[in-house]
Amino acid sequence: MLEIILHTGNFLNAGNNRLGAALGFHLDTLSKLHDTKTSDNKQTIFEVIIQMIKDQRPDLINFRKEDNELLEAGARVSLQTVEAELNKLVKDFDVVSALSPTINTVDSDDLFVKRFDEFTVKAKQDLSILEEKFQKANKTYQEVVQLFAEDPKVMGPEEFFNVWKNFVSRTIETSERIDVEKEKRDKERKREEQKLKREQEIANKLANVGTTEAGPATGGDASGGDGGRGGRAPRGGRTPQGRGGRGAGGSNPSEVTDLFAKLQGSKKT
Questions:
Q1: SS3 track for the chain
Q2: Cα Rg of the chain, angstroms
Q3: Per DSSP, what are the bridge partners of residue 249?
Q4: How far apart are alpha carbons 172 and 179 in whole angstroms?
Q5: pLDDT at position 89, please?
Q6: What does the mean pLDDT of the chain come to?
Q7: Neighbouring C-alpha atoms within 13 Å toward the C-beta of 56
Q8: Closest by alpha carbon to 8, among 201, 18, 17, 19?
Q9: What is the Cα–Cα distance from 266 to 269, expressed in whole angstroms?
Q10: Confidence of residue 111 (pLDDT cuts 50, 70, 90)
Q11: Taking CA atoms, which of 51, 71, 122, 211 is between 20 and 30 Å from 107?
């Protein structure tokens, strides 16, 4: 994550010869990422970086709750206070130990000296272990701080661990907010899609109804005749040539012509 932040900073400062090719940055830069906003003033650089990491390397921000609890505990530690308390404890023990030889036994039943000697041996061992742990913790802390190019004499554990505590907590918070906003956008998009789908279905139904009402009328054909009867010849009707029309049983036009010719011939004779 620090490498990505470094590249992002170098990219933003590409036009600056002094800042555009940095090999590293101080830890206080992590808190300043929230103060730098995008050109539209809607996001911070930190939010853009977290979004980019979530898209490409989501495993980098998979912090655990236990990790943040350790950082919070570290931010409450003061090595100077611990060292001062340990030194006072050692000094007080030395004073008490120096008094031990001056205490006399009252009688044979007096067990004070015996018990105090046992306590002295045990306490001396415990103090030795505490001093060893403190020296190891102090050395490890100095190495860690120097690894991040900071001065352990200037930056104490309270400041050092507080930087990381805020960084991790803000990372988790920003990541969760991005997820919530994405889920909100997805729901809104689905609602819009469903709305458009319903509107399209309604439009299609209306188009189908309009097509049915404007279609060709049933019954009748181009040959004319009774529209309600599909052009069928009227039963028992008359034709220009005389009676006709009961289908195959009626006279055809040639027979009628012959009949008229015979009638006219009989009138002449």
A1: CHHHHHHHHHHHCCCCCCCCCCCCCCCCHHHHCCCCECCCCCCEHHHHHHHHHHHHCHHHHCCCHHHHHHHHHHHCCCHHHHHHHHHHHHHHHHHHHHHHHHCCCCCCCCCHHHHHHHHHHHHHHHHHHHHHHHHHHHHHHHHHHHHCCCCCCCCCHHHHHHHHHHHHHHHHHHHHHHHHHHHHHHHHHHHHHHHHHHHHHHHHHHHHHHHHHCCCCCCCCCCCCCHHHCCCCCCCCEECCEECCCHHHCCCHHHHHHHHHHHHHHHHC
A2: 52
A3: none
A4: 11
A5: 94
A6: 81
A7: 8
A8: 19
A9: 5
A10: confident
A11: 122
Structure tokens at 223: 């040959």
Tokens of 208: 């189908």
Within 8 A by CB and 6+ apart from 253, the residues are: 241
Residues 49 and 8 sit within 8 Å (Cβ to Cβ) = yes
Count, residues in the chain:
269
* Rounded Cα–Cα distance for residues 149 and 20 (Å): 19
Q: Which token pair is 118?
A: 């046992």
Q: Which amino acid is at 15?
A: G
The tokens 């004499």 sit on which residue? 153
C-alpha 113/C-alpha 101 separation (Å) is 9
**What's the pLDDT tens digit per position in 116-173?**
889 999 999 999 999 999 999 999 999 999 999 999 999 999 999 999 999 999 999 9
Tokens of 176: 């969760």
**Whole-model pTM over 0.90:** no
Query: To which residue do tokens 């289908």 refer?
Result: 247
Q: Which two tokens stand for residue 40?
A: 């539209």
